[in-house]
Amino acid sequence: QVQLVESGGGLVQAGDSLRLSCAASGRTFSDYHTGWFRQAPGKGREFVAGVSSSGGSTYYADSVKGRFTISRDNAKSTVYLQMNSLKPEDTAVYLCGAGLVGTHEFTYWGQGTQVTVSS
């Protein structure tokens, strides 16, 4: 089992940057692949980025490719999302998810952190 807590969200202007963090607790963080999803008002949950348990493979939604970077530090049990060149359409609640290695499933979730991009 793993517990996830996101931080780093806020209110920024278009073109600004934010770095989100997802801190994991519990046993065996390195046994999980992790990712970021977002939920905007009136929209369904959208996959943003994912990273394998080792950190060796990353995946991005086309809408954020080239602007966002996902990474993880297993020694710190933390996954990050560096968000550059933010756009108003990036406004959403960003959620961290985790799933056991060997699956394409996310079974653990944080509560989310709000990102609001104005202008």
Structure description:
It is globular, with a radius of gyration of 13 Å. The model has no long low-confidence stretch (mean pLDDT 95). The relative contact order is 0.31. A hairpin with a 6-residue loop joins strand 5 and strand 6 (58-60). The protein has no helices and eleven strands. The chain is mainly β. The strands form two sheets. Strands 2, 4, 5, 6, 9, 10 and 11 form a seven-stranded mixed beta sheet that branches.
Index terms:
11 strands, 119 residues, mainly beta, seven-stranded mixed β-sheet, four-stranded antiparallel β-sheet
Topology:
Layout: E1 3-7, E2 10-13, E3 18-25, E4 32-39, E5 46-51, E6 58-60, E7 68-73, E8 78-83, E9 92-100, E10 108-109, E11 113-118
Parallel strand pairs: 2-11
Antiparallel strand pairs: 1-3, 3-8, 4-5, 4-9, 5-6, 7-8, 9-10, 9-11
Compute the number of strand runs.
11
Shape: globular
Helix content: under 10%
Per DSSP, what share of the residues sits in E-state strands of 2 or more residues? over 45%
Multimeric state of these chains?
A: single chain
- Distance N terminus to C terminus? 40 Å
Order of helices and strands: EEEEEEEEEEE
Low-confidence segments, given as residue ranges, are none
Overall pLDDT metric:
95
Discrete helix count: 0
Query: Over the alpha carbons, how many angstroms does the gyration radius reach?
Result: 13 Å
Structural class: mainly beta
Query: Biggest β-sheet: count, sense, barrel?
Result: 7 strands, mixed
